[in-house]
Amino acid sequence: MHKRYLMAPGPTPVPERARLVMARQLIHHRGGDFKEIMAEVRRGLKWLFQTESEVLTLTCSGTGAFEAGMINFTSPGDTIICIGGGKFGERWGGVGRAYGMNVVDVEVEWGEHVDPSRLESVLEKHGDATLVTLTASETSTGVIHPVEELAKVVRDKSKALFAVDGITAVGVHDIPMDQWGIDVLVAGSQKAFGIPPGLGFVAAGQRAWERAGDEGHPRFYFDLRRERKRQKDNQTAFTPAISVVLALREVLTMMQEEGKEALWERHRRNAEATRAGVQALGLRLLAKRCSDAVTAALTPKGIAAPEVAAAMLADQGVTIAGGQKHLRENLIRIGHIGFFEASDIRMALGALEQVLRKLGCDVEPGAGLAAAQAVFATSSNPVND
Ligand SMILES: Cc1ncc(COP(=O)(O)O)c(C=O)c1O
Description:
By secondary structure, this protein is an alpha/beta fold. It is 43% helix and 15% strand. The strands form 4 sheets. The chain has a 7-stranded mixed sheet, sandwiched between helices.
């Protein structure tokens, strides 16, 4: 087995153009050439996040960026509302508690999305809440929450800020930060950007900055006020992951060449084809409201998900993800976030069919591929159809 395919919901494969950029000799991050690159990166990120606000590039993983997005605009003792429904949504409650905040967990069954009316009643009960957190695309369950409706509830019914983990949503779904009134929006380099882990992005709107005072949580590396000041001057406060920033400029250029609508449409089409394919192979989707970043599918009765994932890698060279926590034994997750094309989806479904048959499933040869091809046949996107 020589060929390897990375189809996890992050990290995602790095396009050749970005790999070549990273192969070049390093440049210094205080030089004029880096400043020019940062200026382009800042423009590209604003374009992708659909915001006039500064989108800060931090050298950290997505969790670091979200933690920064939470702690710069809140204070110890604040009441914050954290919408759960999966591993990542629930994680933000953990950050809040670590910083001494009073966390109201909105528990959501894994695989379900949160109903805006439910958030409305939680806000009525906790009128003093200063922040609501949401993971837009819940990578552990494959759910996309109704972000626009939830943002409206937060705006109309409270004085709280709305912080959205867009780590597997930005660059996949249309999440217009300014138009929907999202106060804080976060993303990470190893997801839709298709570059190595190492950069976290956090954008904050005016309402959030007004609360970024000295009286808040103790912070140093993640003090976004200093970072914003430096980045407005096309610098970073500390040494950034320089090579990854260079790759970021390249993939932002690629995204702009493709166009935002085409980017979302490619993700939608790949996701729809994957969903059709896995269902034709006898798996069941966990989510009712599906994210276009990842397909989370329950394996047929008697087929252990860890065995499927292990055989996908050992026999087919394809890395997919398993389920997390209580879904470990019966959930697989196929990532199609980033620079994937129809051929990648066909490859993954063909491999999955082989594995399921090996594990004793009675699957009709080509059933998954046929279902995916039916989706691609009706697609208007010309890329690799
Ligand atoms: C939705 C979501 N939020 C947060 C994270 C955590 O990001 P990181 O592992 O980069 O800290 C992930 C990573 O998979 C994610 O998918």
